[in-house]
Amino acid sequence: MVNSTFTDLDESHAAQLWGYEPVCVGHRLHKSPLFSQDTLAALIETYPREHYGIIHMGPTNSDRRYWREGDLNGLSGREVIEAISSGRLWLNLRNTSEVDHMYKILLENVFDELHDHIPGFSSYHHKCGILISSPKAQVYYHSDIPGQLLFQISGRKRVYVYPAKEPFITPEDLQRTAISGLEVDIPYAAWYDDYARIYEFEPGQMLHWPQYAPHRIENQHCLNISMTAEFLTGPIRRRQIINLANGVLRYRFGLQPQGSSVNGPVFWAKAALWLAWRKTSWVAEQRALHKKLEFVLDPVFPEAVRDINPAIMEDADEKHTNY
Questions:
Q1: Which of 21, 97, 104, 272 is the most buried (most CB within 10 A)?
Q2: What is the pTM of this model?
Q3: Can you tell me the distance from the alpha carbon of 10 to that of 2, in angstroms, rounded to the nearest whole number?
Q4: What is the chain's mean pLDDT, rounded?
Q5: Which position has the higher pLDDT, 319 or 264?
Q6: Is the pLDDT confidence value at 208 over 90?
Q7: What does the alpha-carbon distance between residue 38 and residue 64 come to, in Å, rounded to a whole number?
Q8: Strand, helix or coil at 313?
Q9: What's the CA gap between 214 and 208, in Å, rounded?
Q10: Who contacts 12 (Cβ-Cβ below 8 Å, separation ≥6)?
Q11: Short-list 153, 137, 140, 217, CA closest to 183
């Protein structure tokens, strides 16, 4: 474990730009033994089913709706990494800081340092995850609801970050994303790239973008390993509640919600609405719509992807709770 995560927070303009513009700074996490392939292979083998997702992606420049979820099928950690190395796959190990205490310590060190270096930045509800993805894989245009950090550990990728405003992201997009949990369900047009900040992302770099800024990623010809970190602040949590409540109004009651104020009686009324609806079967059903298992990893099949039939998928989905 390193004592200092970041290499150039003091020498950059990160403190002044934080939360307003994309910020790219150096880090040392790629030197940590927690991210060696041997360590990650061992972690994969014991990872709780409810905390990972394995995604089969379309080729670069393919239809953005090609997004299928699968299962690791009991493969060893080394077999999983090998399958990812030769396919079009993303493995998302979610909530790693809750699964393994060593990553929790690392994560808290990251945020302690950020709090020390970014005046006025105070955050909570920290989570991290590990992404292992194939050469030339892509992540489609999407927006995240919490605050985000992306650390490149190994491999190289191109990251496009777009303005966090219309037409790149709309209130309806945010409401739909908040309710469904499917971040990639956002319209994209090729001309958006003319307005993107583009980063040639390498090991030892960390990227932070303003909340809701849409982004997409194209891996280079190499296996990629990254760590994501998410967080909440008071304002981020309030905006999150507004999007969720407005999403209920739009998609459950067919209304056109007005306003996104995070203060005053309207905000508290919407907060009460979300509190009443957040654990209902309707919310669970909306999120389950996008969580069907369609394949398992199998090394003898092309790209290690073996499709599973609907009967098997239905049985797997019944066991695949809290996904």
A1: 97
A2: 0.90
A3: 18
A4: 90
A5: 264
A6: yes
A7: 33
A8: helix
A9: 12
A10: 23, 25
A11: 140
Structural domain boundaries enclosing 245: 234-285
Q: How far is CA 29 from CA 3, 35, 257, 307, 313, in A?
A: 10, 8, 43, 36, 38
- 126 and 176 share one domain: yes
pLDDT digits (tens, 9 = 90+) for 42-83: 999 999 999 999 999 877 666 556 778 999 999 999 999 999
Residue 80 lies in a domain: yes
Name the DSSP class of 308.
Answer: -
Strands 67-71 and 52-57: antiparallel
The two tokens of residue 244 are 């969720």
Q: Which residues sit opposite 149 in a β-bridge?
A: 208, 229
Task: Measure the CA–CA gap between 41 and 45, rounded to whole angstroms.
Answer: 7
Total number of domains in the chain: 2
Query: 213: closest CA among 192, 237, 227?
Result: 192
- Shared domain for 169 and 60, answered yes or no, is yes
For 237-262, the pLDDT digits (tens) are: 999 999 999 999 999 899 999 888 88
Q: Tell me how far apart the alpha carbons of residues 84 and 225 are, in angstroms, rounded to a whole number.
A: 11
